[in-house]
Structures are given as structure tokens and as C-alpha cells.
Amino acid sequence: MAVSKGFLVLLPLAFVVAISTIATAQISDLPIVSGLSWSFYESSCPKLEEIVRKRLKQVFKKDITQAAGLLRVHFHDCFVQGCDGSVLLEGSASGPDEKDAPPNLTLRPEAFKIIEDLRRRVHKKCDRTVSCSDITALAARESVFLAGGPEYPIPLGRRDSLNFATQEATLANLPGPTSTTSVLLEAYANKSLDATDLVALSGGHTIGISHCPSFDNRLFPSQDPTLDKTFAKNLYKICPISDTNATTVLDIRTPNVFDNKYYVDLMNRQGLFTSDQDLYTDKRTRSIVTSFAVDQSLFFEKFVLGMIKMGQMSVLTGRRGEIRANCSARNPSRFLVPLGGEGEEGVAASF
Ligand code: HEM
Ligand SMILES: *[C@@H]1O[C@H](CO)[C@@H](O)[C@H](O)[C@H]1NC(C)=O
Ligand SMILES: *[C@@H]1O[C@H](CO)[C@@H](O)[C@H](O)[C@H]1NC(C)=O
Ligand SMILES: *[C@@H]1O[C@H](CO)[C@@H](O)[C@H](O)[C@H]1NC(C)=O
Ligand SMILES: CC(=O)N[C@H]1CO[C@H](CO)[C@@H](O)[C@@H]1O
């Protein structure tokens, strides 16, 4: 049963008591989208989660920064057309795809390679039973945990999209880093995510990096007054003129650890993007930022709830969608046989 995994394991023992408010029963009792299940691969691929964790442990031992890349890919997948693996598809014949849209240009090529490598390992053990969208979701979940964050179950059973997401959809659905809290609240509300979800999910920026063009609106033509002065000085050293190629970390305190220091950064005016810092400036979200900065277990709890919500956005289940044999390409026609499940729609009827 998934119940055995339905708890949050927090590394520092001190947090265990505080987190007991969100115990086993609560997470796997959450209502989930029909077609998904907490124990979806229990019989078809019982070793799935073990395979993913074991491999990612090896990958992160070499380079922990890959965790951030994997977390971000899942976020991008879910926000554009739903968590359907569409972000993984490469080059459509008929024009630019989701991967080529500006916000995706900074997704790490390694993240796509890691996901495809996980798929290969999983399918070797379990044949083509596990979708690329589920592997992406699991990789994000493991990235959070292996970088020091909470351990939590996620519902599985997603199918992979048959179609590409357009560049237009990508731009319309992924808010930019210059967005204000007002814009973000509206974009999230449109996806049934509330202010707490927004602030908690933004905590994903506790790991990872950014390129100068994503934040140099705060440096040029003039310095954003909400930037801490010393912090700004260092950013000018990294990005001496606008549109340079260099990178810096998103969380200056603990750049590779999944913890609540991102919120401490915001309280010290050391958030990197306008979209980060404005969460502390805006009265509607400020108290949520403060509550996470002083209580890591509260942040972990809300982050997990946000991820479980986000991970179910517009998913394809049953016979809607397919299980790709290659995460970056739709299946060739020899795979076009109905997959299990009692859905109404035929597989790949559209082509
Ligand atoms: C609130 C809306 C969000 C905006 C505007 C935003 C924007 C960005 C931008 C501009 C970057 C850096 C791109 C670059 O220049 O390299 C970035 C990186 C990142 N974002 Fe977000 N993001 C948002 C929400 C999220 C969410 C919900 C998550 C996950 C839960 C997330 C996880 C990450 C991670 C982990 C990185 C670092 C990636 C790496 O190191 O390769 N972001 N984000
Ligand atoms: C909300 O979502 C709908 C479709 O789901 C989209 O057409 C609309 O542009 C979105 N609005 C905002 C503000 O994101
Ligand atoms: C940008 O960065 C890439 C990779 O780090 C490098 O190959 C390229 O030369 C850089 N471009 C500029 C204009 O600095
Ligand atoms: C997977 O699909 C991509 C994109 O079409 C292709 O470049 C790659 O060679 C494929 N991999 C395998 C193992 O067939
Ligand atoms: C046009 C372009 O550069 N597309 C890139 C989008 O991001 C992926 C992953 O980094 C690259 O593989 C694509 O080449």
C-alpha cells in the first residue's frame, strides 16, 4: 500500500514532532484526479520508485545541482497543457515546440537526458508500463527529497501527450520572472492554485541557478529599490551589463539545499527575481513568506500540498495519451495498440 510511504520524513529529528499534523493518512487521503492512484504501479512495476531513487542518488552524488533542473522541468511540464510530458518532446515538423519557447531555453539539457535514462532503466525492468510524465513527476519528487526536503507520496498514472504544446501556450502559461504578485496570483488562480500554493511552490527557488537576463531588469537601467544594497553590488559583478550570459544561485544562503532559507532571503531583500521579492513586498503574501521563513516544517507541509495539486493539473489518464517508448518522441505507429484502462477514447485516434 502507498500508505506505508504516506508520511513526511524530515532529516532533522527536531521537525518530526511539528510535522505530525500532516501524517500518513492525511496525504494519501487527499482527493485525487480520477484515473490516478497512490499505488498505480504496485503490481505492474513495484520497483519503480526504488529504481528512480537509486539512480538519482548516483547522479546527485556527482552533481547535486541537477536536482534543480529536474524540479523545474516538472513545473514547466505541468503549467503548460498539464503534466503530460509534452515538455520532453523534441522538434515538431510543423514548427517550434514547447522546448523551444523562450522560457524553456534555460531548461537544462541534462535534465532531459536524466529523465530518458530513468525511463530506459524503468522500462528495462517493467517493460513499457510507466509513462514519461510519471517519471518526470517522480524525478522532481526525489530531487526535493534528496536535496534535503520533505519525503512524500505522489499519485501516479499519468499518460504522455500525443501532441506538442505550442510556443503560444508556453508563453501564456508560464509567468515570467518580472511578474508582480498580482500577475502571479491571477495566473495561479486560473489553475486553481491559491496564494499559499503560490508562495509555497515559489520555494522551489531554494535550489538552482538563473541566467542574468532573467533578473537584470532589477539592475538596468537602474537599480530596483527593493534590492538589498550589498546583494545588488554582487549582482552587478556577475552581470556587469545587461543581457550577459553568466549565472548565479537563486538562494544565496544554501543554494543546493532544499530548505526554507529562500524565504529568509526574501525577508532580507535578497530574492533574485521580481517574482520572488514581490511576494514579500505584497501585503497579500507577505505574512505567508514570514510564516515559512520562521517555520520550515510549515513550508514543507504547504510545498507538498502544492506539488500534489500541481502534479495533477490537466493530466491524461487511462486511454487518453500513451506511454512513450522514448520520452522525447511520440510513439511510432507500431506502438499504437490500446493500452490498459477502460477509457472511452481510442489511443492515438488523431493520427
Ligand atoms: C512563480 C512563478 C515562477 C517564475 C516566474 C519562475 C521563473 C524562473 C526563472 C526565470 C528561472 C531561471 C531561468 C534562468 O535564467 O536560468 C527559474 C529557475 C528555477 N525555477 Fe522557477 N519560476 C517560477 C516558479 C517555479 C516553481 C513553481 C518551481 C518548482 C516548484 C520552480 C523551480 C525552479 C528551479 C528549481 C529553478 C532552477 C533551475 C536550474 O537550476 O536549472 N520555479 N525559475
Ligand atoms: C486562464 O486559462 C484560460 C484557459 O484555461 C486561458 O484562456 C486564459 O488566458 C487564462 N487567463 C490567465 C489570466 O492566465
Ligand atoms: C554563453 O554561455 C555558453 C555556455 O556557458 C558559452 O558557450 C557561450 O559562449 C556564452 N555566450 C556568450 C555570448 O558569452
Ligand atoms: C528518441 O527520440 C529523439 C527525438 O526524435 C531521437 O533524436 C532519439 O534518437 C530517439 N532515441 C532513441 C533511442 O531512439
Ligand atoms: C531552440 C533551443 O535552443 N531549444 C532548446 C530548449 O531546451 C532544450 C533543453 O535544454 C534544448 O535541448 C533545446 O535545444
Automatic annotation (TrEMBL):
GO function terms (MF aspect): heme binding; lactoperoxidase activity; metal ion binding; peroxidase activity
Chain residues that bind Ca(2+) 1: D77, V80, G82, D84, S86, E98
Catalytic reactions on record: 2 a phenolic donor + H2O2 = 2 a phenolic radical donor + 2 H2O
Residues noted as binding heme b in the record, renumbered to the chain: H205
Disulphide connectivity of cysteines: C45-C126, C78-C83, C132-C327, C212-C239
Binding site for Ca(2+) 2: T206, D251, T254, D259
Signal peptide (UniProt feature, chain positions): 1-18
SUPFAM superfamilies assigned to the protein according to its UniProt record, in alphabetical order: Heme-dependent peroxidases (SSF48113)
Domain Plant heme peroxidase family profile: residue ranges: 35-331
Protein name: Peroxidase
Protein source organism: Amborella trichopoda
The organism's taxonomic lineage, starting at the top: Eukaryota, Viridiplantae, Streptophyta, Embryophyta, Tracheophyta
